[in-house]
Amino acid sequence: MNATFLRIDLQRQLRDVANIVFVIGLPVAMYIIFGSTFGAGGETAGHGNVRFYVMTSMAVYGASVATTSIAGMAAIELLQGWGRQLGLTPMSPAAYVGTKVVVALTVAAGAVAAVFVAGMLTGARADAGWIWVATFVIAWLGSALFALFGLAIAQTFRSESAVSVAAAGLVLLAFFGNLFVPLSGTILQVARFTPMYGFAGLVRYPLLRGQVIDTSGGASQDSLGWLIVNVVVWAAIFATVAVWAVRRGRRRQ
Q1: Where is the ABC-2 type transporter transmembrane domain (predicted)?
Q2: This prediction's pTM
């Protein structure tokens, strides 16, 4: 990883005030709408209350939006000739991907923190302090998965439409990740094999211990091992596609 490129890229991202406000403000607004305006927010959910459950969902979505959008901007950089300049340096494709992931995680930390602050101010509750800490750390670091997703999309499409494709795909994945509405039946079984499901399940694990909230009344449980395998497998797939696409692009240049 190149420290100079990391510093310059991070400064450039932080100067994009409009994008920073969007990726931090959107999940906070969604949490306030879904988490603090319903009367059932104070009811018990696992080792906390419903507001904490909604807070974790919006933290997952916010971190994913932040990492996907930051990494997806790589497509715009390529159109502007930045990729060709980087191709003339000794930096390897893997180092480029790693640096982009670190920059995206830095912005994602702000998005997760903003949702947590909103949760604290509006009555989100967990039975122990370590649940707050564990949930924050998993939501933050786990979002690296979607930095790889954004890079894989950006490097594969290499056009301005890459950002739109990544954003649309993220909304679909968030639905299958149980972030917007609790899933049940066949859709829930299919969702277990999608990328957002494992990540969201890990973030909720300190609160629910693997229990799946099902509004249809059915009870199911996800093992910790299955959730970890889901995240590891999808991270390997996205990383492989991203590195392959970077190498393909440099050969063409």
Answers
A1: 6-185
A2: 0.86
Which pLDDT belongs to residue 47? 93
Which helix (H) or strand (E) segment holds residue 221: the answer is strand 220-221
What lies within 8 Å, CB to CB, of 244 at 6+ separation is none
pLDDT along the chain (253 residues), means of 10: 78 80 84 71 84 92 87 68 69 75 86 93 92 95 89 77 80 89 87 93 93 73 94 93 76 60
151 Cβ partners below 8 Å, 6+ apart?
71, 72, 74, 97, 100, 101, 238, 242, 245
Q: Please state, as a whole number, how many other Cβ atoms lie within 10 Å of the Cβ of residue 190.
A: 12
Q: Which residue has the tokens 């994913």?
A: 64
User: 147, 208 in Cβ contact below 8 A?
Assistant: no
pLDDT score recorded for residue 57 = 92
CB 113 within 8 Å of CB 170: no
Supply angle C-alpha 197, 130, 100, rounded to 5.
50
Whole-angstrom CA distances from 203 to 26, 49, 50, 62, 134 are 19, 15, 15, 13, 8
The partner residues of 27 in beta bridges, in order of sequence, read none
Domains in the chain: boundaries: 3-251
What are the residue ranges of helices labelled H in the chain?
Answer: 3-15, 17-35, 50-72, 74-79, 82-87, 93-121, 129-142, 144-157, 161-176, 185-191, 195-208, 224-252
Closest CA to 174 of 151, 154, 203: 203
Are the beta carbons of 125 and 55 closer than 8 angstroms? no
d(CA 207, CA 177): 16
Residue type at position 99 = T
